[in-house]
Amino acid sequence: MLSLMLNTSSYGQLLPFQYYTTREGLASNWTTDILQDSRGYIWIGTATGLSRFDGIEFRTFTTKDGLPNDYVNTVIESRAEVGVLWIATNDGLSKFKDGHFSNFYIETSSESEKMMLSLHEDVQGTIWIGTYFGVYRLMKNECVRFVKENQQIGYFGIEETKDGLWWAGTRQGLRFRNSAGEKFVPFLHDDTPQSPVVNLFKDSEDNIWVASEDSTIAKIHRGKLVSSLKIPFGIPTRMLEEDDEHLLVSVAERGVYRVAKSDQKVNDIALIIQANTIGIGSLLPILKDREHNLWFLNPNRGILKLTDMSIVSFPMIVVAHSINNSGMALDVNNHCWIANGTQITEVWADTQGEWHQFNHQNVTDGTDFYQAVCSDSKGQLWFKTRDYHLFCFAGQLLSEGHSQLTRLRTLVPNIDFSATTGIMCFMVDRNERCWISIVNTGVAVINLQNLRSKIILIDSTRGWYNGGPRVLYQDNKGNLWFGGNDAGLGFLPKDSVTHGKIKLYTTADGLPNNFIRSLAEDSLGNLWIGTRYGGVAKYRNGKFTMLPDENKLLGNGVWCIAVSPDSSVWFGTNDGVYWIEHPDSTTIYQKPELKGESVSALRVQENGSVWIMTTNGLKIFDPKNRNSNI
To answer: Domain 506-630 in CATH: superfamily?
Structure first.
């Protein structure tokens, strides 16, 4: 046995972001704030003006159009006057109404005191302004001082809750006041962060969330500290309410995490966007628009829109071609293994939701080229190489997160089995037998419990033609199925492996096509059959039925099929991935993001996530967000 040497870890996660920069018409790549107004426009504050995006193009407003200063710190829409915007700049406040700007200034000679950092509109419609040196109110078209500070405390966020309390995030920690109070005072609590507040946020349930430079997120409800969570990964910089149960929290230099609102625990934090994998250091979630797209500020690099968080991609330069749904396998630890040419690639998500990719190289004695992989009932991994060797490995998780592979056995061509013409595909069944499709010969069956036992050969003498099948499959009852290249579908009962004839089904029996490319059985006992030119058929109780083709189903070439624990059936084709929700359904679904690439392998985890191997790499799809009925 050989214990293998492993290389260093690498990352490759990609999400379907759309990038907007000055190239697309944004005023500046240095962005400060983003808002969607009641009419659907997206407004972006930048260092050189206020940009408006209508979904197609940008229009920018600057001092030439009436802004008091081009550096926009924040923008809000009035609740009292729908369609009216309030804009805080480095030199005054601006009201944008009916295409015109009205400006309001703080009367001071100090440039730093003129800078307006934050805005809040109270229930009476009064505008409150946070600055470096205090808080102002707009009263009778004048900026009237409410709180004066003798030093640069910096009021970077102001919020008001239904209990009449006011909250402010400052450089000196969290402050509050009641409705009758004349100033903001420190909110003192043993577990309340007193370090500078980075972000202050009020959710739909009237909770105040405070992110601080000491890496703490605090939750306050009705004036009391409810919970406090120390983020071990870095400083939380921005928060956004994703839904009724979760927040999205940006952590500097790490990415975006999902945090439960009800019970914040470190173990329940999930990394959903890994910053370094998209070439950026900081990513600030700041807007969820009406179409449920997420918008992010990318400091000094413009803005990003994430249209679909359900898909993660791992591009791979070299991906070996495979048949029989053998391009990848999932192990008992939910790690994905890919036969990736000169290396074996391992992909997984850790307990924090962070994705990892690890390339195992030089795992055997020679310079092998890995073409196919499958897992057996013991959780062992089997790989086929270009020179027709079959290697069996056991994987052991290491503290670093990846696995260490140990070679257990090798099946050598022309020693353990005859393969002078080559191997088409292989499979290890639940009875510890290795089935090897041999080109121009048939199928060799090896008893892995006793390699000295006689090799069984299934060929024309058993009712199969003298050629290796493209597909090998064992159903839930233990029966064996063969998919031929223009030979139809072969059936071998589980008790007839050593003897008996193959029962052959062809177009004469109702198959749409004799070129069989994929097989899978669902929980109802239906056998799904993917063909090269005839789409998909379903076999049950001796009868074939076709999946309707009114949408030119699947491009007709179906290379792999997988069944989810929720009984949905997934099809990998030369035009992407399609699925049906239930075995008895005829409604076909597809996502545009999963279209247009040839799919060579499909696997479904117990949690329902779909793993897709294409000619361009690996994709993981979370079907909880599935949509786009074709």
So the answer is: YVTN repeat-like/Quinoprotein amine dehydrogenase (2.130.10.10)
